[in-house]
Queue: 4 jobs
Job 1
Amino acid sequence: MDLNINGQTLSPPPGQDIDPDMPLLWALRDVLGLTGTKFGCGVSACGACTVRVDGQAVRSCVTPVSAVVGKRIQTIEGLGTPDKPHPLQTAWIAQQVPQCGYCQSGMLMAAAALLDRNPKPSDADIDAAMTNLCRCGTYQRVRAAIQQAANLRLGPASGVKA
């Protein structure tokens, strides 16, 4: 079974199959070796496993692989690069969001989905969209980083200061 992940077609290693009922999280981590997506709760409550499927934030721990075949999957590994980080990654560092870091990949993927559908979200929009849990309680920093990333993406021509 081939999957479109981070702009590439990936297949399981020879001799290893992906059961269509397998949660996407385990296919990513255990079969394909993409370990940036984290296991948190296994019941879609915490959001540590969030990836994007066709641009939408999806909890991969409860999403069967069969539901994403033929769709564009983006994991944290595909969000930016060391040479060209995503504006969210830049803002995350500037706002000192990470503490323990465990929830961060899921938070970033949910925030990326938010900014793609709403390039200038209000605090209320951010609060409504960001349902991921952070044990360290960095929610105010997350909100500030999303606002900063929105300003970075809009740039100086928007009249918004970055």
Job 2
Amino acid sequence: MSVRQTDECVVEDLEWSSAPLDLLRHAQPWRTFRWYKGQQHYSGTYWAATVGDHVIYESRLELARLLFADFAADVRHVVAQPFMLKAVVEGRLRRHIPDYLLLTDGGPVVVDVKPRHRLERPEVAFTFAWTRAVVASRGWR
């Protein structure tokens, strides 16, 4: 896995099972959002009381999930696009950046946000299943 730090340096090739949670807590988002006329999604920033700072989102669906997290009593911190997972799966190099990492009273929760109709696409289903297995291997949800 790789993590982008506040100084824009990237810590690469961390072992997933031993990456420090404190490093992830302070990770910077992987992507910056774009604005252009006619775009199909609405990116922006949301002032999250849980974090005491702005948190980015790349769609209204992500914003809705971010609002749920900000109002959830057990969520202590939210990190947008916290890390990039990289692994060779079924002979191909796979990369995935989850949308959010929620640090909760019950442990870390990795969140991916997609519209329901896109979950039926084989590549999306595969990526989410692979990510879920990796996250669960660390005892996270």
Job 3
Amino acid sequence: MSRVTLTDVEWINLNVLVVIRSGLQHDHASTCCRYGLNTAQANHLRELSLDELWSLVIHVGDTTLFPPRADLVTLLSAPRALVGPMALVHSPMPMESRR
């Protein structure tokens, strides 16, 4: 039996992603407002499996995903091996800060 040890940032990312995914399945509009998600981010998160969420969190490492990054959909769509390096080289600026 293998055991995965998560850092605090990874644990927070995983928990927020799971809560958001669950919220999107029950009340899409409220969850988008609560977590500051746009439609593309919400739709992409809703379609990810729990295994894909785990994989994303492990590959992103100690880079926070929230508040939602402007490049969240890009990170969610990228090959898992590239997610960590991409998260490090791009600014984690939230969507509303880029205006």
Job 4
Amino acid sequence: MNPVLIPIFALLIPIVAIIANVVIKPMIRLRERKMELEATMVAEKAAQYAARTERLEQRVRVLERIVTDRGTDLAGEIERLRDERPLN
């Protein structure tokens, strides 16, 4: 190896480190921020799906009560259950 190359490589190491610090760190921070935003959006969407699923389950429970309750007038039961339904 050429003895002149040793000091050149020795100087290149800190230069590369400085460039990496200036260029790569902001890129990593940007990617982390993007991932955080995506995680927030996914969590919000999951909460919306959970709320919708809960509403659908409530409706199914009401329909099950209507179908399994044989001793009542069906139209009257439907109207009574509509009045009970919480407003969202």
